[in-house]
Design goal:
With 535 residues, this protein is α+β, with helices and mostly antiparallel strands. Strands 1, 2, 7, 8, 9, 10, 19 and 20 form an eight-stranded mixed beta sheet that branches. Strands 12, 13, 14, 15, 16 and 17 form a six-stranded antiparallel beta sheet that branches. Strand 19 and strand 20 form a beta hairpin. Helix 1 runs parallel beside helix 15 and helix 4 crosses helix 15. It is globular and about 70 Å long. The two termini are 43 Å apart.
């Protein structure tokens, strides 16, 4: 085993939290090493829209969004409903605003933007914002990143399905590209790809470095000030998932980055770290693609989902984490299979919304050739295709069509919440956080998200339980210091992102909570390392 260089900080992982934390450290003059297990930077952040749920941040104020930190605090207290996490919530709220103020001073990050309403997910909770609290990084031309662009992980459609890359990075790839360039430009940053964490180095009770492997060789890198674990969760590790999770998933359906197999979690536990929420994930519905694997499905604007009995069971447009958790709950508790379930729609929906491609174009033949999308001339034929009782499916569709006529989904209330209404712009109507539906919009349906199922042919696609990462991990304090079971910190060891047990507990408060948490607690970690505060 070789001995590598000594740094002030070693960061394990190159997702949003890892790279932003590394930049914050390097910009303060600390020699900072980032090790990345795979050959590209970005982790799951690169697959994402890079929303950041940062209440009170400057981009929200610039956009005229009326809100306050106290409202956001009230909201978090109510939806998380866990006093043991209140100190983490307060740290998160303080760090988000301060971090954005700092990043916007760097020309690589420029100005984050509020892109319009992304309503909080629990709209009836005290303090919920129908306008949302989510901000995004600005797009960046790939050419502007120069040689750094080739290091950034592609989006899932490009990486897995062969979609065209384009000339601009948006969402997560924009954040990652900007953070990578800013980090390396400090002159204090080093990046090592294809370098896997093997174990943490502990001396006299303090974490003083990491042992990593690359090309079959192990090297120890010293960290004089601290180690920040930002290596994602364990969503791609079948053993850990089957040990801790409530449904038998092996990671195949996950939309987390392929390197997220719990290396940092295991390394932390090996040096005495406590854990929490290991049974949890950022669950999402996944629409099975022609390659046989799912992509994160944010919400359904038409048609219905039915279980193995042919029954509708959920508001198909509800916030994705809630829909994912409902799949888990019903699959475990009802005796009827809900994973997978069937998305049933008709030609009217297809004509309006398209499917799996650009609006106005028919589905790519690969959908039908692979069986990911199937077609039937009648509901009876479709029931045979998906092996559900026809009489039950017929009654389910009749009930749904009745709701379509009135515009009111009496069972599941699709189209009523601010989140649901944010989908209106996708079906040809202006959307706002508190708007009402236009009176009798063309072609005359009172609720554009409840078009009837009555126009053959009928289609069916498959929805499975996916995720955008696990959310259980190492237990930390408000400074992102990793804790022992007795509540004391392990000196020199910090964690953030999905390596850290989520500050939001079992819930997903709003768009951008996972990546927002990753950035916020990476920032808190570095501030603690340098002995500063966010004030």
């Amino acid at each position: 085993m070789g001995s590598g260089e000594t740094y002030d900080i070693v960061v394990v992982g190159s997702g949003g939290g890892g790279l932003v934390g590394a930049y914050v450290a390097a910009s303060r003059g600390l020699r900072t090493l980032v090790i990345e297990k795979t050959g590209r930077v970005g982790g799951t952040t690169a697959y994402s829209g890079a929303g950041l749920w940062f209440p009170g941040s400057a981009p929200l104020r610039r956009a005229g969004v009326e809100d306050s930190i106290e409202n956001a605090r009230t909201y978090l207290r109510d939806v998380v409903a866990d006093e043991s996490r209140e100190h983490l919530q307060d740290a998160y709220l303080d760090a988000g605003r301060a971090l954005i103020d700092e990043l916007e001073q760097n020309s690589w990050f420029q100005s984050f933007v509020y892109g319009g309403p992304v309503p909080d997910y629990f709209d009836s909770a005290p303090g919920a914002s129908p306008a949302g609290r989510t901000i995004f990084p600005p797009n960046i031309a790939i050419a502007d990143l120069g040689e750094h662009a080739g290091l950034v992980r592609d989006s899932l459609p490009v990486e897995r399905l062969g979609a065209r890359r384009g000339e601009v990075f948006d969402g997560g790839r924009a954040l990652i590209g900007r953070a990578l360039a800013a980090f390396l430009e400090t002159g204090n940053g080093t990046l090592l790809l294809d370098t896997r964490l093997e174990e943490l180095v502990v001396e006299d009770g303090r974490v003083t470095g990491v042992t990593a492997s690359s090309a079959g060789e192990r090297t120890t890198f010293r960290a004089g000030r601290g180690v920040l674990l930002a290596a994602g969760g364990f969503e791609r590790d079948a053993e850990l998932r089957q040990k801790h999770h409530p449904v038998p998933l092996d990671g195949t359906w996950s939309n987390g980055a392929p390197g997220n197999t719990g290396d940092a979690l295991r390394a932390g536990v090996a040096v005495g770290a406590d854990t929490d929420l290991l049974d949890e994930a950022w669950y999402v519905p996944g629409l099975v693609q022609p390659d046989g694997l799912p992509l994160f499905h944010t919400g359904t604007r038409g048609g219905i989902w039915v279980n193995a009995a042919g029954e509708r069971f959920v508001n198909e447009t509800r916030p994705y984490d809630q829909a994912g958790h409902e799949l888990v709950r019903l699959h475990r508790s009802t005796g009827v299979a809900h994973i997978p379930c069937h998305w049933v729609f008709d030609q009217r929906h297809l004509d309006r919304d398209s499917f799996g491609g650009d609006p106005g174009l028919p589905p790519d033949p690969a959908w039908f050739e692979s069986g990911a999308l199937r077609k039937a001339d009648s509901l009876e034929e479709l029931a045979k295709l998906i092996e559900v009782p026809y009489d039950t499916l017929r009654k389910t569709v009749e009930e749904y069509n009745g709701y379509s006529g009135t515009g009111v989904d009496a069972r599941f209330h699709r189209g009523e919440s601010p989140w649901d209404k944010s989908y209106l712009h996708m079906v040809g109507f202006p959307a706002g956080p508190v708007m009402n539906y236009p009176p009798k919009p063309s072609p005359g349906w009172a609720n554009p998200l409840l078009l009837p199922l009555d126009t053959p042919p009928f289609y069916v696609a498959t929805i499975v339980l996916s995720d955008i990462g696990t959310k259980g991990g190492l237990k930390t304090d408000e400074h992102a210091r990793v804790l022992r079971p007795d509540g004391g910190p392990i000196p020199g060891l910090y964690a953030t992102g999905n390596t850290m047990a989520a500050m939001s507990g079992h819930v997903y408060p709003g768009a951008g909570t996972p990546i927002g948490s990753s950035l916020a607690f990476a920032y808190r970690a570095v501030l603690d390392i340098v002995g500063a505060t966010e004030d």
